[in-house]
Amino acid sequence: MAIIVTIENPVLDKNGKLKSRINSIISPILKINGEIHLNLHDLIPFANNSEKKVVDFLLISSYVYAIDRFVNRHENSIDGWSRELEVTVPVYEVDLWSGNSNYLEDCLSFLTGDYWKVNFIPLTLVIPKSTIGAEFNLEFSQVNLFSGGLDSLIGAIDFLETGSNLLLVSHYDPQMHGPKNDQKKLYDVLLKEYANRVVKVPSVEMYLRAPNVNTEKTFRSRSLLFLGISVLVAQFQKCSIAVPENGTVSLNYPLSSSRRSACSTRTTHPSFIIKIRKLLDLLGINNNIFNPYEDKTKGEMVRDSSNSVLLESIVEQSNSCGKRGHVANWTETVGKTHCGICMPCIYRQASLFEIIDKTPYGNTINKAKYGKNDKPFFESKQSQDLAACLSFLKKDISSSQIKNELLINGVTNLSKINDYVALVERSRLELRQWFEREGKKEIKIRLGND
Protein backbone atom coordinates (compact mmCIF):
# COMPACT_ATOMS: atom_id res chain seq x y z
CA MET A 1 0.00 0.00 0.00
CA ALA A 2 1.29 3.42 -0.96
CA ILE A 3 1.81 5.99 1.77
CA ILE A 4 -0.45 8.94 0.98
CA VAL A 5 1.08 12.35 1.70
CA THR A 6 -0.69 15.67 1.15
CA ILE A 7 0.79 19.15 1.37
CA GLU A 8 -1.82 21.81 2.02
CA ASN A 9 -1.66 25.27 0.46
CA PRO A 10 1.00 27.25 2.34
CA VAL A 11 0.44 30.48 4.24
CA LEU A 12 2.97 33.32 4.19
CA ASP A 13 3.16 35.59 7.25
CA LYS A 14 4.22 39.25 7.29
CA ASN A 15 7.83 38.27 8.03
CA GLY A 16 8.10 36.11 4.92
CA LYS A 17 7.86 32.78 6.73
CA LEU A 18 6.00 30.12 4.80
CA LYS A 19 4.09 27.42 6.67
CA SER A 20 2.36 24.39 5.16
CA ARG A 21 0.49 21.52 6.77
CA ILE A 22 1.75 18.05 5.86
CA ASN A 23 -0.58 15.10 6.36
CA SER A 24 0.06 11.43 5.78
CA ILE A 25 -2.01 8.25 5.76
CA ILE A 26 0.42 5.48 6.69
CA SER A 27 -2.28 2.80 6.98
CA PRO A 28 -6.08 2.70 7.27
CA ILE A 29 -5.75 3.26 11.02
CA LEU A 30 -2.63 5.42 11.24
CA LYS A 31 -2.58 9.07 10.23
CA ILE A 32 0.15 11.58 11.09
CA ASN A 33 0.58 15.29 10.50
CA GLY A 34 3.09 18.08 10.89
CA GLU A 35 4.17 21.46 9.56
CA ILE A 36 6.71 22.55 6.95
CA HIS A 37 8.48 25.82 7.71
CA LEU A 38 10.38 27.66 4.97
CA ASN A 39 11.66 31.18 5.53
CA LEU A 40 11.19 32.92 2.18
CA HIS A 41 12.01 36.42 3.44
CA ASP A 42 15.29 36.81 1.54
CA LEU A 43 14.04 34.92 -1.53
CA ILE A 44 10.87 36.96 -2.12
CA PRO A 45 12.72 39.59 -4.22
CA PHE A 46 14.09 36.82 -6.45
CA ALA A 47 10.65 35.20 -6.67
CA ASN A 48 9.28 38.52 -7.94
CA ASN A 49 11.84 38.35 -10.78
CA SER A 50 11.14 34.72 -11.69
CA GLU A 51 8.47 32.85 -13.57
CA LYS A 52 5.90 30.94 -11.53
CA LYS A 53 7.30 27.57 -12.64
CA VAL A 54 10.66 28.50 -11.08
CA VAL A 55 8.96 29.33 -7.77
CA ASP A 56 7.17 26.00 -8.12
CA PHE A 57 10.50 24.18 -8.42
CA LEU A 58 11.74 25.78 -5.20
CA LEU A 59 8.55 24.84 -3.36
CA ILE A 60 8.56 21.30 -4.73
CA SER A 61 12.16 20.88 -3.57
CA SER A 62 11.11 21.98 -0.06
CA TYR A 63 8.09 19.66 -0.11
CA VAL A 64 10.29 16.71 -1.14
CA TYR A 65 12.80 17.46 1.61
CA ALA A 66 9.97 17.56 4.16
CA ILE A 67 8.29 14.39 2.89
CA ASP A 68 11.63 12.56 2.85
CA ARG A 69 12.07 13.39 6.54
CA PHE A 70 8.41 12.96 7.47
CA VAL A 71 8.03 9.31 6.45
CA ASN A 72 10.43 7.09 8.36
CA ARG A 73 12.18 4.78 5.91
CA HIS A 74 12.78 1.79 8.19
CA GLU A 75 9.23 1.73 9.51
CA ASN A 76 7.51 2.27 6.16
CA SER A 77 9.66 0.68 3.46
CA ILE A 78 8.40 -2.13 1.29
CA ASP A 79 11.74 -3.92 0.98
CA GLY A 80 13.80 -2.68 3.92
CA TRP A 81 14.73 0.54 2.14
CA SER A 82 12.33 1.87 -0.53
CA ARG A 83 9.09 3.62 0.34
CA GLU A 84 6.08 3.84 -1.95
CA LEU A 85 4.93 7.47 -1.82
CA GLU A 86 1.88 9.01 -3.44
CA VAL A 87 2.02 12.74 -2.79
CA THR A 88 -0.11 15.75 -3.63
CA VAL A 89 1.51 19.17 -3.69
CA PRO A 90 0.32 22.70 -4.54
CA VAL A 91 1.93 24.54 -7.49
CA TYR A 92 1.12 27.54 -9.68
CA GLU A 93 1.59 25.77 -13.03
CA VAL A 94 -0.54 22.65 -12.50
CA ASP A 95 -0.81 21.67 -16.19
CA LEU A 96 2.91 22.15 -16.85
CA TRP A 97 3.97 20.01 -13.91
CA SER A 98 1.29 17.38 -14.55
CA GLY A 99 2.51 17.04 -18.12
CA ASN A 100 6.05 16.41 -16.91
CA SER A 101 5.29 14.45 -13.74
CA ASN A 102 6.94 11.27 -15.08
CA TYR A 103 10.27 13.07 -15.41
CA LEU A 104 9.97 14.59 -11.92
CA GLU A 105 9.10 11.19 -10.44
CA ASP A 106 12.10 9.63 -12.20
CA CYS A 107 14.40 12.28 -10.71
CA LEU A 108 13.00 11.80 -7.21
CA SER A 109 13.12 8.00 -7.37
CA PHE A 110 16.77 8.08 -8.43
CA LEU A 111 17.57 10.63 -5.74
CA THR A 112 15.92 8.98 -2.74
CA GLY A 113 15.63 5.32 -3.78
CA ASP A 114 11.83 5.37 -3.37
CA TYR A 115 8.82 4.99 -5.64
CA TRP A 116 7.19 8.38 -6.19
CA LYS A 117 3.80 9.30 -7.62
CA VAL A 118 3.28 13.08 -7.64
CA ASN A 119 -0.07 14.84 -8.10
CA PHE A 120 -0.59 18.59 -8.27
CA ILE A 121 -3.26 20.98 -7.02
CA PRO A 122 -3.52 24.76 -7.61
CA LEU A 123 -1.34 26.97 -5.41
CA THR A 124 -3.15 30.04 -4.04
CA LEU A 125 -0.11 31.67 -2.41
CA VAL A 126 0.25 35.42 -3.04
CA ILE A 127 3.86 36.61 -2.94
CA PRO A 128 4.24 40.26 -1.89
CA LYS A 129 6.24 42.74 -3.94
CA SER A 130 9.84 43.32 -2.90
CA THR A 131 12.91 44.68 -4.67
CA ILE A 132 16.28 43.00 -4.91
CA GLY A 133 18.93 44.57 -2.67
CA ALA A 134 21.71 46.76 -4.06
CA GLU A 135 24.35 44.20 -3.06
CA PHE A 136 23.06 41.94 -5.85
CA ASN A 137 23.58 44.52 -8.60
CA LEU A 138 26.93 43.02 -9.62
CA GLU A 139 27.15 41.00 -12.82
CA PHE A 140 27.42 37.45 -11.52
CA SER A 141 28.87 34.74 -13.72
CA GLN A 142 27.85 31.81 -11.56
CA VAL A 143 25.77 30.65 -8.61
CA ASN A 144 27.48 28.16 -6.29
CA LEU A 145 25.97 25.93 -3.67
CA PHE A 146 27.68 26.76 -0.38
CA SER A 147 27.06 24.20 2.33
CA GLY A 148 29.87 24.94 4.79
CA GLY A 149 31.72 21.80 3.72
CA LEU A 150 35.22 21.44 2.28
CA ASP A 151 34.16 20.80 -1.32
CA SER A 152 31.90 23.84 -1.56
CA LEU A 153 34.67 25.96 -0.01
CA ILE A 154 37.15 24.80 -2.66
CA GLY A 155 34.55 25.42 -5.36
CA ALA A 156 34.06 29.01 -4.23
CA ILE A 157 37.80 29.72 -3.96
CA ASP A 158 38.59 28.21 -7.36
CA PHE A 159 35.90 30.22 -9.11
CA LEU A 160 36.75 33.49 -7.38
CA GLU A 161 40.39 33.01 -8.42
CA THR A 162 39.24 33.33 -12.06
CA GLY A 163 38.40 36.98 -11.37
CA SER A 164 34.66 36.61 -11.95
CA ASN A 165 31.90 37.52 -9.51
CA LEU A 166 30.21 34.73 -7.56
CA LEU A 167 26.83 34.43 -5.88
CA LEU A 168 26.51 31.88 -3.07
CA VAL A 169 23.34 30.18 -1.86
CA SER A 170 22.77 27.92 1.12
CA HIS A 171 20.15 26.64 3.50
CA TYR A 172 20.09 25.20 6.99
CA ASP A 173 17.82 23.20 9.23
CA PRO A 174 17.83 24.60 12.82
CA GLN A 175 17.27 21.02 14.01
CA MET A 176 20.75 20.22 12.63
CA HIS A 177 23.18 22.37 14.57
CA GLY A 178 26.28 23.66 12.86
CA PRO A 179 25.89 24.30 9.09
CA LYS A 180 24.63 27.89 9.39
CA ASN A 181 27.59 28.89 11.55
CA ASP A 182 30.03 27.03 9.26
CA GLN A 183 28.68 28.92 6.26
CA LYS A 184 28.96 32.29 8.01
CA LYS A 185 32.56 31.77 9.17
CA LEU A 186 33.74 30.72 5.73
CA TYR A 187 31.82 33.45 3.94
CA ASP A 188 33.36 36.11 6.21
CA VAL A 189 36.82 34.90 5.14
CA LEU A 190 35.89 34.87 1.44
CA LEU A 191 34.40 38.34 1.74
CA LYS A 192 37.66 39.65 3.17
CA GLU A 193 39.84 37.88 0.59
CA TYR A 194 37.68 38.65 -2.47
CA ALA A 195 36.17 42.00 -1.54
CA ASN A 196 33.31 43.20 -3.74
CA ARG A 197 33.29 40.03 -5.87
CA VAL A 198 31.38 37.53 -3.75
CA VAL A 199 27.88 37.90 -2.33
CA LYS A 200 25.90 35.36 -0.36
CA VAL A 201 22.13 35.19 -0.19
CA PRO A 202 21.34 34.78 3.53
CA SER A 203 21.09 31.10 4.41
CA VAL A 204 17.50 29.94 4.01
CA GLU A 205 15.88 28.33 7.05
CA MET A 206 13.92 25.16 6.33
CA TYR A 207 12.64 22.60 8.81
CA LEU A 208 9.92 20.08 9.51
CA ARG A 209 7.92 20.29 12.72
CA ALA A 210 6.43 16.90 13.56
CA PRO A 211 6.79 16.33 17.33
CA ASN A 212 4.83 13.06 17.41
CA VAL A 213 6.54 11.49 14.39
CA ASN A 214 9.65 9.31 14.33
CA THR A 215 11.29 11.25 11.50
CA GLU A 216 13.76 9.92 8.92
CA LYS A 217 17.48 10.61 9.50
CA THR A 218 19.10 9.82 6.11
CA PHE A 219 18.52 13.25 4.48
CA ARG A 220 18.91 11.91 0.94
CA SER A 221 17.00 14.85 -0.57
CA ARG A 222 18.70 17.63 1.40
CA SER A 223 20.77 18.88 -1.54
CA LEU A 224 17.70 19.12 -3.78
CA LEU A 225 16.64 22.14 -1.75
CA PHE A 226 20.00 23.74 -2.58
CA LEU A 227 19.11 23.31 -6.27
CA GLY A 228 15.64 24.77 -5.76
CA ILE A 229 17.09 27.90 -4.16
CA SER A 230 19.87 28.12 -6.75
CA VAL A 231 17.54 27.95 -9.73
CA LEU A 232 15.37 30.71 -8.26
CA VAL A 233 18.36 32.97 -7.56
CA ALA A 234 20.11 32.19 -10.88
CA GLN A 235 17.06 33.43 -12.82
CA PHE A 236 18.01 36.95 -11.76
CA GLN A 237 20.96 36.99 -14.18
CA LYS A 238 20.42 33.77 -16.14
CA CYS A 239 23.75 32.32 -14.97
CA SER A 240 25.02 28.77 -14.53
CA ILE A 241 24.75 26.81 -11.30
CA ALA A 242 27.74 24.91 -9.92
CA VAL A 243 27.33 22.04 -7.47
CA PRO A 244 30.88 21.52 -6.15
CA GLU A 245 31.32 17.91 -5.01
CA ASN A 246 34.21 15.51 -5.42
CA GLY A 247 33.60 12.81 -8.01
CA THR A 248 34.17 10.00 -5.52
CA VAL A 249 31.16 10.95 -3.42
CA SER A 250 29.13 11.92 -6.49
CA LEU A 251 29.47 8.42 -7.92
CA ASN A 252 28.41 6.88 -4.60
CA TYR A 253 30.43 3.76 -5.26
CA PRO A 254 29.31 1.34 -2.50
CA LEU A 255 31.85 -0.12 -0.11
CA SER A 256 29.99 -3.44 -0.38
CA SER A 257 26.93 -4.78 -2.18
CA SER A 258 24.96 -4.59 1.09
CA ARG A 259 25.66 -0.84 1.30
CA ARG A 260 24.32 0.12 -2.14
CA SER A 261 21.37 1.85 -0.49
CA ALA A 262 23.37 3.44 2.32
CA CYS A 263 24.75 6.42 0.43
CA SER A 264 23.61 9.70 1.93
CA THR A 265 22.91 11.67 -1.24
CA ARG A 266 22.84 11.28 -5.01
CA THR A 267 22.21 14.94 -5.88
CA THR A 268 25.56 15.25 -7.66
CA HIS A 269 25.58 11.77 -9.19
CA PRO A 270 26.28 12.22 -12.93
CA SER A 271 23.01 10.51 -13.82
CA PHE A 272 20.99 12.74 -11.52
CA ILE A 273 22.58 15.85 -13.03
CA ILE A 274 21.52 14.57 -16.46
CA LYS A 275 17.99 13.84 -15.22
CA ILE A 276 17.47 17.19 -13.51
CA ARG A 277 18.81 19.06 -16.55
CA LYS A 278 16.31 17.21 -18.75
CA LEU A 279 13.43 18.01 -16.39
CA LEU A 280 14.31 21.71 -16.27
CA ASP A 281 14.73 21.83 -20.06
CA LEU A 282 11.26 20.32 -20.50
CA LEU A 283 9.87 22.93 -18.13
CA GLY A 284 11.61 25.71 -20.05
CA ILE A 285 13.96 26.60 -17.18
CA ASN A 286 17.25 27.22 -18.93
CA ASN A 287 19.99 27.28 -16.28
CA ASN A 288 22.94 24.97 -16.75
CA ILE A 289 23.59 22.83 -13.67
CA PHE A 290 26.97 21.13 -13.48
CA ASN A 291 29.55 19.69 -11.11
CA PRO A 292 33.00 21.08 -11.95
CA TYR A 293 34.71 18.30 -9.99
CA GLU A 294 32.93 15.19 -11.22
CA ASP A 295 36.26 13.77 -12.49
CA LYS A 296 38.28 14.51 -9.35
CA THR A 297 38.84 12.81 -6.02
CA LYS A 298 38.58 14.94 -2.90
CA GLY A 299 42.36 14.85 -2.57
CA GLU A 300 42.77 16.08 -6.14
CA MET A 301 40.43 18.97 -5.38
CA VAL A 302 42.65 19.94 -2.44
CA ARG A 303 45.90 19.46 -4.36
CA ASP A 304 44.71 21.46 -7.38
CA SER A 305 43.22 24.35 -5.39
CA SER A 306 43.75 27.70 -7.09
CA ASN A 307 44.66 29.31 -3.77
CA SER A 308 46.18 26.60 -1.60
CA VAL A 309 47.54 29.11 0.92
CA LEU A 310 44.06 30.44 1.67
CA LEU A 311 42.55 26.97 1.68
CA GLU A 312 45.06 25.60 4.17
CA SER A 313 44.60 28.61 6.45
CA ILE A 314 40.83 28.06 6.80
CA VAL A 315 40.27 24.38 6.04
CA GLU A 316 39.59 23.60 9.72
CA GLN A 317 36.62 25.98 9.65
CA SER A 318 34.82 23.85 7.05
CA ASN A 319 32.86 20.82 8.21
CA SER A 320 32.54 17.45 6.49
CA CYS A 321 31.34 15.22 9.35
CA GLY A 322 28.23 13.14 8.75
CA LYS A 323 27.73 12.44 12.46
CA ARG A 324 28.72 15.68 14.16
CA GLY A 325 25.80 15.51 16.57
CA HIS A 326 26.48 11.96 17.77
CA VAL A 327 29.10 12.78 20.39
CA ALA A 328 28.14 10.36 23.17
CA ASN A 329 30.94 7.90 22.42
CA TRP A 330 33.60 10.23 21.08
CA THR A 331 36.98 9.84 22.79
CA GLU A 332 37.10 13.64 23.13
CA THR A 333 34.28 16.14 22.76
CA VAL A 334 35.44 19.54 24.04
CA GLY A 335 36.29 21.76 21.09
CA LYS A 336 35.90 18.89 18.61
CA THR A 337 33.94 19.42 15.39
CA HIS A 338 34.28 16.09 13.56
CA CYS A 339 33.80 12.49 14.69
CA GLY A 340 36.84 11.43 12.63
CA ILE A 341 35.56 7.93 11.79
CA CYS A 342 32.46 8.31 9.59
CA MET A 343 33.00 7.98 5.83
CA PRO A 344 32.86 11.76 5.16
CA CYS A 345 35.52 12.26 7.85
CA ILE A 346 37.65 9.47 6.40
CA TYR A 347 37.46 10.94 2.89
CA ARG A 348 38.29 14.35 4.32
CA GLN A 349 41.37 13.22 6.23
CA ALA A 350 42.67 11.25 3.25
CA SER A 351 42.18 14.29 0.99
CA LEU A 352 44.19 16.51 3.35
CA PHE A 353 47.08 14.04 3.25
CA GLU A 354 49.57 16.57 1.88
CA ILE A 355 48.71 19.66 3.95
CA ILE A 356 48.57 20.46 7.65
CA ASP A 357 45.12 19.42 8.82
CA LYS A 358 44.21 21.30 12.01
CA THR A 359 40.65 19.98 12.07
CA PRO A 360 39.73 18.90 15.64
CA TYR A 361 38.57 15.28 15.41
CA GLY A 362 36.82 13.60 18.35
CA ASN A 363 38.10 10.13 17.48
CA THR A 364 41.08 8.61 15.70
CA ILE A 365 40.96 5.67 13.30
CA ASN A 366 43.25 3.90 15.79
CA LYS A 367 40.65 4.09 18.53
CA ALA A 368 40.91 0.88 20.62
CA LYS A 369 38.05 1.02 23.12
CA TYR A 370 34.38 1.94 22.99
CA GLY A 371 31.85 2.99 25.64
CA LYS A 372 31.95 2.96 29.43
CA ASN A 373 32.83 -0.73 29.54
CA ASP A 374 35.86 -0.31 27.27
CA LYS A 375 34.66 -2.80 24.70
CA PRO A 376 36.88 -3.35 21.64
CA PHE A 377 36.14 -0.56 19.19
CA PHE A 378 35.63 -2.82 16.18
CA GLU A 379 32.84 -4.65 18.02
CA SER A 380 30.79 -1.43 18.15
CA LYS A 381 28.35 0.07 15.65
CA GLN A 382 30.47 3.20 15.72
CA SER A 383 33.17 1.34 13.76
CA GLN A 384 30.89 0.27 10.91
CA ASP A 385 32.01 2.86 8.33
CA LEU A 386 35.68 2.38 9.11
CA ALA A 387 35.46 -1.41 9.07
CA ALA A 388 33.55 -1.41 5.77
CA CYS A 389 36.06 0.97 4.20
CA LEU A 390 39.05 -1.17 5.26
CA SER A 391 37.33 -4.30 3.96
CA PHE A 392 36.66 -2.53 0.65
CA LEU A 393 40.31 -1.50 0.30
CA LYS A 394 41.54 -4.98 1.17
CA LYS A 395 39.63 -6.55 -1.73
CA ASP A 396 41.23 -7.08 -5.12
CA ILE A 397 38.77 -5.37 -7.46
CA SER A 398 39.32 -5.38 -11.21
CA SER A 399 38.46 -2.55 -13.58
CA SER A 400 35.68 -4.64 -15.11
CA GLN A 401 34.18 -5.29 -11.66
CA ILE A 402 34.25 -1.57 -10.91
CA LYS A 403 32.56 -0.86 -14.25
CA ASN A 404 29.79 -3.37 -13.57
CA GLU A 405 29.17 -1.91 -10.11
CA LEU A 406 28.97 1.62 -11.51
CA LEU A 407 26.38 0.47 -14.04
CA ILE A 408 24.37 -1.25 -11.30
CA ASN A 409 24.61 1.92 -9.24
CA GLY A 410 23.04 4.08 -11.93
CA VAL A 411 25.73 5.40 -14.29
CA THR A 412 24.13 5.89 -17.71
CA ASN A 413 26.71 8.01 -19.54
CA LEU A 414 28.69 5.20 -21.17
CA SER A 415 31.02 7.64 -22.93
CA LYS A 416 32.52 8.47 -19.52
CA ILE A 417 32.39 5.06 -17.89
CA ASN A 418 36.14 4.45 -18.22
CA ASP A 419 36.86 7.86 -16.67
CA TYR A 420 34.64 6.92 -13.73
CA VAL A 421 36.39 3.57 -13.34
CA ALA A 422 39.75 5.37 -13.19
CA LEU A 423 38.31 7.79 -10.61
CA VAL A 424 37.25 4.92 -8.33
CA GLU A 425 40.71 3.37 -8.65
CA ARG A 426 42.41 6.67 -7.74
CA SER A 427 40.00 7.08 -4.81
CA ARG A 428 40.95 3.65 -3.48
CA LEU A 429 44.64 4.54 -3.78
CA GLU A 430 44.10 7.87 -2.02
CA LEU A 431 42.40 6.18 0.93
CA ARG A 432 44.91 3.34 1.11
CA GLN A 433 47.90 5.68 1.19
CA TRP A 434 46.41 7.63 4.08
CA PHE A 435 45.55 4.50 6.07
CA GLU A 436 49.04 3.09 5.52
CA ARG A 437 50.57 6.27 6.86
CA GLU A 438 48.23 6.88 9.79
CA GLY A 439 47.05 3.41 10.71
CA LYS A 440 48.52 1.32 13.52
CA LYS A 441 48.62 -2.49 13.78
CA GLU A 442 44.86 -3.17 13.88
CA ILE A 443 44.25 -0.94 10.87
CA LYS A 444 47.08 -2.51 8.87
CA ILE A 445 45.82 -6.03 9.61
CA ARG A 446 42.33 -5.12 8.40
CA LEU A 447 43.87 -3.44 5.36
CA GLY A 448 45.67 -6.67 4.53
CA ASN A 449 49.17 -5.35 5.12
CA ASP A 450 50.07 -7.66 8.02
Q: What would you note in describing this structure?
A:
It contains 17 helices and 15 strands. With 450 residues, the chain is an alpha/beta fold. The protein has a domain at 320-447. The strands form three sheets. Strands 1, 2, 3, 4, 5, 6, 9 and 11 form an eight-stranded mixed beta sheet that branches. Strands 10-8-7-12-13 form a five-stranded parallel beta sheet. Strands 14-15 form a two-stranded antiparallel sheet.
Summarize the structure.
This protein is of the alpha/beta class. It is 39% helix and 16% strand.
What does the secondary structure layout of this molecule look like, with pairings?
Blueprint: E1 3-7, E2 11-12, E3 17-27, E4 30-39, H1 44-48, H2 52-70, H3 73-76, E5 84-91, H4 94-99, H5 101-112, E6 115-122, E7 142-145, H6 150-160, E8 166-169, E9 171-172, H7 179-193, E10 198-200, E11 204-209, H8 222-234, E12 240-242, H9 247-251, H10 270-283, E13 289-290, H11 298-303, H12 308-314, H13 343-351, E14 369-370, E15 375-376, H14 384-394, H15 399-408, H16 417-438, H17 441-447
Parallel strand pairs: 1-5, 5-6, 7-8, 7-12, 8-10, 9-11, 12-13
Antiparallel strand pairs: 1-3, 2-3, 3-4, 4-11, 14-15
Helix pairs in contact: 2-8, 5-10, 13-16, 15-16
